[in-house]
Amino acid sequence: MKDADKTKEQLITELVELRRRAAELGVLETERKRAEEVLRDSEEGFRHLFNDLNDAAFLADVKAGIIIETNQQATTLLGRSYEEIIGMHQSELHPPSKADEYRQRFDRHIQEEHAADYDGEVMRKDGTIIPVAISAATLTIGGQPFILGLFRDITERKLAEEALRESEERYRALVNLGGAVGEAIVMLQDTEQRDAIHTFVSREWPRITGYSKKELLGMSFFDLLHPRYHEAALKRHKRRMRGEAIPKLFELSIIRKDGTEVPIEITSAYSTYKGERANVAFIRNITERKEAEERERQLQQELHLSSRLAAIGQLAAGVSHEINNPLSGIVGYS
Question: 35 and 107 share a domain?
């Protein structure tokens, strides 16, 4: 119907309807702008949060595995620019020789839909391999699934672990060598109640003392020591626990579990164990050496006595000769 044919009432009704629809469109436009503003604020907030993370962050599309967002820490970790990282496949973050392994991990994250933590490696632009701790989790943004990976450089931790492992291997070799040559290694620490408590003993120490390892741990070294050495040994121990230098080797005796006295030779070094001061002692059973020294001493005494007897015999023979010579002259003139 043409406008000319419409009644006044019809025209007014259509005008009202047009105004109503225009108002609805205005509301929709306002809501759209508000939604865009909220989305923009949300994206900016997400980007700020992303960049404020202490770890390198990579946001990858679940289906393609392509990295769509990253942060400054990631550029530092990889030695690559933001533009170089965006568009990379997640497997390209890692050494080529392990690409398949990380693709499989990525697929498992998606299938299992739960967070995972593990140690891995990334390769910098210059080819350097960096050990990293990886935390990966799936999340939904705008109705779309993504996987977020947080990577932390653990180079220092790995170096410390390697140094600790090498130290433990050297220490284990030292303990085993000590046992092979009959030398015990013990670690002594002071408590509020007692001094020189055994906190570590090598296998040789139970053989020397006659006590089991279980019995020795928690026992004071002075419980084993012969009483005549207590005072001097305690002074040495206190000096060593203060980190003072003391004479390297000294001898003393312990009392075995069966009551027999055993001579030992000991040297010690100041150390720390579990954050507390420790006196690490290297102990050797010198019974055989002492017995050999005693046999040598007795032999020397016997040789000395034999020499004295021989000298006395020679003296007696000389005296007898001097006495006999005058008597011979007297007999010749008679």
Answer: no
From CA 43, how far away is CA 38, in angstroms rounded? 8
Q: Which amino acid is at 241?
A: M
Task: Give the SS3 label for residue 226.
Answer: coil
First to last CA, the chain: 196
Please give the angle made by the CA atoms of 299, 304 and 306, to the nearest 5 degrees.
90
User: Smallest Cα–Cα separation from 151: which of 129, 135, 130?
Assistant: 135
Render pLDDT for 122-151 as a digit per residue (tens, 0 to 9).
999 999 999 999 988 888 877 788 888 899
Q: What angle do CA 39, 42, 48 make, to 5 degrees?
A: 145
Q: Which residue(s) pair with 70 in the sheet?
A: 58
In angstroms, the Cα distances linking 68 to 48, 102, 112, 174, 217 are 16, 18, 22, 54, 58
CB atoms < 10 A from the CB of 90, how many?
22
User: Which structural domain, as residue segments, surrounds residue 20?
Assistant: 3-46
Say yes or no: 238 and 132 in one domain: no
Number of residues assigned to the chain: 334
**169 and 65 both lie in a single domain:** no
Do 164 and 233 belong together in one domain?
yes
Looking at every residue in the chain, the average pLDDT score rounds to 80
For the whole model, what pTM was predicted? 0.49
- Residue 184 tokens read as 């015990």
